[in-house]
Amino acid sequence: MTLNRIKSLARTPPLLLAQMLVRRIPLRPIDVGKLCFLQLNSVPQVPAAMLRGDADVRFATVDDLDALGRLRDHKPLFRRRFADGDRCVIAIIDGRVVGYEWFSDGAVHHETGWGYRIAIPGGYVYAYDAYIEPAYRNTGLWLRFKAHLADWMAARGKHGVLTFVDYGNWPSLRTHLRFGFRPTESVLALRIVSLRLFRKVRAIGMATWSYLAWIAMLPSPAHLHHATRALHAALAVVRR
Predict the structure, then answer these.
(1) Strand order in the sheet with 195-202
(2) Which end of the chain is more exposed for a tag (fewer CB within 10 A), N or C?
(3) DSSP per residue over 184-222, as a string?
(4) DSSP 94-134
């Protein structure tokens, strides 16, 4: 292991370091993570000038299962979601599905990755599992999904969106914060074989999240050092 690698690991937040270690264990009997919940307390607002690209965006149906399965090999899971009444917005380019995002407007959603039970506030929509083919990322498709959702929400009297971002997914966090989402709470998750343990913790403040999301996008070791110091300070506040 090189000196630079050792320095990089030393700057890694403890939770992400633990995650890296346990995910190297064969069959992954143990896992740890944090679900960072955010809310948008309004119908998504996407100016028409920001709706770029030639994608056809619409709600998917069960007839689109094969196309969704070709994009990601989760066809049985997608089928269950349709059966549960969840909705999926898809983007189609040149006759091919290149992206999707799922939504639920029920009272409760059972998250599949951790098995966590998510209570959806009245009047809110839960947005989850957004995926865009790498070649089409940063082309405005995520905004197209939100604009399509906004029309559906307005027609049904919905007034907010709930979602979560995995801790450490700085690009997604930064995108949500810039769009107007605000942190509400975080949930520490621990899985040991089939046992799952969860603990709610206070969300890190908006200013700290914004700073971390910005600083983590920069490659400079000095920037990462300052980000880690800010994170440790924020975690100290959460533990009080």
Answers:
(1) 56-59, 87-93, 96-104, 124-132, 160-166, 30-40, 182-192, 195-202
(2) C
(3) EEEEEEEEETTEEEEEEEEPPPHHHHHHHHHHTT---HH
(4) TTEEEEEEEEE-SSEEE-TTT--EEEPPTTEEEEEEEEE-G
Residues 91-145: tens digit of each pLDDT: 999 999 999 999 999 999 999 999 999 999 999 999 999 999 999 999 999 999 9
Q: Which residue's structure tokens are 């740890």?
A: 32
pTM: 0.83
Q: For residues 128 and 53, state if they share a domain.
A: yes
Buried b (16+ CB within 10 A) or exposed e, 95-109: eebbbbbbbbbeeeb
Count of structural domains, the chain: 2
Q: Can you tell me the distance from the alpha carbon of 10 to that of 4, in angstroms, rounded to the nearest whole number? A: 10
How far apart CA 30 and CA 47 sit, in angstroms, is 44
Give pLDDT, residue 70: 97
| Predicted pLDDT at 9 | 63
Same domain, 118 and 183: no
Backbone angle region of 71, left / alpha / beta, with phi > 0 → left and psi within -120 to 50 → alpha: alpha
For residues 209 and 153, state if they share a domain.
no
Residue 180, token pair as written in the block: 């107007």
Tell me the residue range of the domain where 61 lies. 46-158
The reported pLDDT for the residue numbered 222 is: 47
**Of 123, 141, 158, the domain-final residue:** 158
